[in-house]
């Protein structure tokens, strides 16, 4: 299997971290191209992504092929020693496709068409779309298979369309037949006897389109599964085409970060390189840094713990928030180094040069509108120099495994978001984010994981909230704890089975036994302005009226309110159960205590506030997410690879400063 290592550690050459970004030079006169490449070289750019969204240029009318401009670009890139990550252009079909084949356009749940004029206007089940996408992919792959600039394939872009149209309906039925076998089984799985929804014929089964009132949760859940699988099928089709031409080159598709639309675990398994786009808001550098850490920990886990790729980030501002702030000086570099610390071997951006026209003309680039003398490019050069320095020591090395696993699963996320939920404030993604942040703030080594993964590698597993758990996951948790593992479990977990059917007793009996819960009588969600007094902390979002099993220790109880005197936090053997969401400092304290008990220590003790420490291979990355200079104690003698200076016991990090330390002999 081709891997990222093939590009970052080429035989006979020094290892390197890939550095570059989306390059869309077809918007510019050709004179600009050579100028771009000159500036890229100066900045240490290794790789560019070409051709994302270029379909209308490559195939200006059905069957026509206009490769000349791309030939010249590929040649030019190669002549400048820049590798090309070549995108299949299928995320933005040319207007002629929608015009001639309106069925290639997606329909929303109200039956409204998404027209061309933007991008991602394709119906993934459409035969016409697939046929044309396959043809242009095949032509592209055939033409450039032997081109020396080509280093990797980038399929489509941020697969994210949804389609409720007629072809989607047919494909949905086929998918449902595979999953359920018979219509009877489907009726049973969806519980269609409720509200008289029983299906008598497959043709009656539709995507969950606009309906009068709440839709069937099993139906909606299966449609989300189907949509993820359908898009994956599109990815696979193009991947298989390019693989036929270039079996030696890695293939990726760029994920949106921590996003509901695709089952990241299932998708990552189909890629040679796992890549992700990450755009935290620079207006809040601390929260942004956490977002980076979360996305990195998830992406690294999806990549099986090995190197992964930042396919896109912004050098400065994006242009899709209500107010778009640039990155203050130093933040771009810090966040690039943070990704590398957490396992990235490739740091790419959207995009090299900001467009002068089109919807994203105010989105930053690696070189800003102010040009080669502007701050953006200056920082781009600095980041490139840092990555070049780190490459030989870092590329291919691994962030140590073990540590704390935070469990996350898309099936459960989807099921929990149903419109008939007890609280629309409850979102697995937000809970994973809150718990991960607590661990990140505590400086503990952490990764994300799926309950089916090998949990035994982790002394502590935390499960913020998995509304839906299949039997295999429950057994895995039982085995994990029986085998000596420590588990912290959050509320409203193990409530549903894979058909989104409530487990007997409300919460699965095996899970209750594991956590020392006799029963949960009521779930009591809290409104945004409500909280519960648990003695030493306040809890928000959720509470439960629960009865403990004999022998379970109550660590905190509710004081006042409807659950006055009832248990809120439990300990039973090596498990803890949180029936509410403690405020951030309390959650951090609670998880830190559990980590301590499980023998997991912070990466570096005694860090000043805002400093993140990460180990990768035998290096220690120190990243300062604050603005005021801080002094960090690092016992021993080290050398900072970024500056070449020797560090004896302490070092000072300035605003958004970073150091990458190796032990000094
Ligand atoms: C996404 C897309 C890019 C660009 C950026 C802007 O990540 O993949 O094409 O639109 O957003 O932030």
Automatic annotation (TrEMBL):
This is Beta-galactosidase. InterPro entries: Beta_galactosidase_C (IPR013739), Beta_galactosidase_Trimer (IPR013738), Class_I_gatase-like (IPR029062), GH (IPR017853), Glyco_hydro_42 (IPR003476), Glyco_hydro_42_N (IPR013529), Glyco_hydro_b (IPR013780). It holds the Pfam family Glyco_hydro_42M. Its EC number is 3.2.1.23. It is an enzyme of class 3 (hydrolase). Residues 610-663 form the Beta-galactosidase C-terminal domain. PANTHER family: BETA-GALACTOSIDASE GANA (PTHR36447). One of its GO terms (molecular function) is beta-galactosidase activity. Residues 93-112 are annotated as: Disordered. Belongs to the glycosyl hydrolase 42 family. Residues 100-112 have a biased composition (Basic and acidic residues). Residues 404-600 form the Beta-galactosidase trimerisation domain. It catalyses: Hydrolysis of terminal non-reducing beta-D-galactose residues in beta-D-galactosides. The lineage of its organism: Bacteria, Bacillati, Actinomycetota, Actinomycetes, Kitasatosporales. Residues 22-389 form the Glycoside hydrolase family 42 N-terminal domain. The keyword Plastid does not apply.
């Amino acid at each position: 299997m081709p891997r990222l290592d093939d590009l970052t550690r080429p035989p006979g050459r020094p290892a390197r971290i890939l550095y570059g970004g989306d390059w869309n030079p077809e918007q510019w006169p050709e004179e600009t191209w050579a100028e771009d490449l000159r500036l890229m070289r100066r900045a240490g750019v290794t790789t560019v992504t070409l051709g994302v969204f270029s379909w209308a240029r490559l195939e200006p009318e059905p069957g026509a092929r206009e490769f000349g401009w791309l030939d010249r670009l590929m040649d030019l890139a190669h002549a400048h020693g820049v590798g090309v990550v070549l995108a299949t252009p299928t995320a933005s079909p040319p207007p002629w496709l929608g015009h001639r084949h309106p069925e290639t356009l997606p329909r929303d749940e109200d039956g409204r068409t998404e027209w061309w004029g933007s991008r991602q206007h394709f119906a993934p089940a459409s035969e016409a779309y697939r046929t044309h996408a396959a043809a242009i992919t095949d032509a592209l792959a055939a033409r450039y298979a032997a081109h020396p600039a080509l280093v990797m394939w980038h399929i489509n872009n941020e697969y994210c369309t949804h389609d409720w149209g007629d072809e989607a309906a047919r494909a949905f039925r086929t998918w449902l037949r595979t999953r359920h076998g018979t219509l009877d089984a489907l009726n049973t799985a969806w519980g269609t006897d409720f509200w008289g929804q029983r299906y008598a014929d497959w043709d009656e089964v539709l995507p969950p389109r606009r309906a009068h009132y709440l839709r069937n949760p099993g139906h909606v859940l299966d449609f989300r599964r189907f949509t993820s699988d359908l898009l994956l099928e599109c990815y696979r089709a193009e991947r298989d085409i390019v693989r036929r031409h270039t079996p030696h080159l890695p293939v990726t598709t760029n994920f949106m970060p921590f996003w509901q639309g695709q089952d990241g675990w299932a998708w990552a398994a189909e890629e040679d390189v796992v890549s992700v786009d990450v755009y935290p808001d620079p207006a809040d550098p601390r929260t942004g840094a956490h977002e980076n850490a979360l996305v990195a920990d998830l992406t690294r886990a999806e990549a099986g713990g090995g190197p992964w790729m930042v396919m896109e980030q912004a050098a400065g501002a994006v242009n899709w928030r209500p107010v778009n702030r640039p990155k203050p000086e130093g933040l771009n570099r810090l966040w690039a180094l943070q990704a590398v610390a957490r396992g990235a071997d490739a740091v790419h951006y959207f995009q090299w040069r900001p467009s002068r026209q089109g919807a994203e003309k105010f989105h930053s680039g690696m070189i800003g509108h102010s040009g080669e003398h502007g701050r953006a490019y200056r920082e781009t050069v600095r980041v490139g120099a840092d990555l070049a320095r780190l490459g030989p020591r870092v590329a291919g090395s691994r962030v140590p495994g073990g540590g704390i696993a935070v469990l996350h699963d898309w099936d459960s996320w989807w099921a929990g978001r149903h419109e008939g939920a007890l609280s629309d404030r409850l979102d697995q993604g937000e809970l994973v984010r809150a718990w991960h942040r607590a661990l990140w703030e505590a400086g503990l080594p952490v990764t994300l994981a799926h309950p089916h993964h090998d949990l035994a590698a982790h002394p502590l597993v935390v499960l913020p909230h998995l509304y839906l758990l299949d039997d295999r996951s429950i057994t895995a948790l039982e085995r994990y704890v029986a085998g000596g593992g420590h588990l912290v479990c959050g509320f409203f977990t193990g409530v549903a089975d894979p058909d989104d059917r409530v487990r007997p007793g409300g919460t699965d009996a095996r899970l209750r036994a594991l956590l020392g819960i006799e029963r949960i009588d009521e779930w009591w969600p809290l409104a945004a302005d409500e909280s519960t007094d648990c003695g030493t902390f306040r809890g928000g979002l959720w509470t439960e009226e629960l009865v403990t099993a004999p022998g379970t220790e109550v660590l905190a109880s509710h004081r006042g309110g409807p659950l006055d005197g009832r248990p809120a936090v439990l300990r039973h053997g090596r498990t803890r159960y949180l029936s509410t969401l403690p405020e951030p400092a309390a959650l951090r304290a609670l998880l830190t205590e559990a980590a301590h008990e499980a023998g997991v220590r912070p990466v570096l003790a005694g860090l000043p506030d805002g400093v993140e420490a990460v180990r990768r291979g035998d290096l220690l990355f120190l990243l300062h997410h604050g603005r005021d200079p801080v002094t960090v104690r690092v016992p021993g003698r080290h050398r900072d690879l970024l500056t070449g200076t020797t560090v004896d016991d302490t070092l000072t990090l300035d605003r958004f400063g970073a150091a990458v330390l190796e032990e000094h002999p």
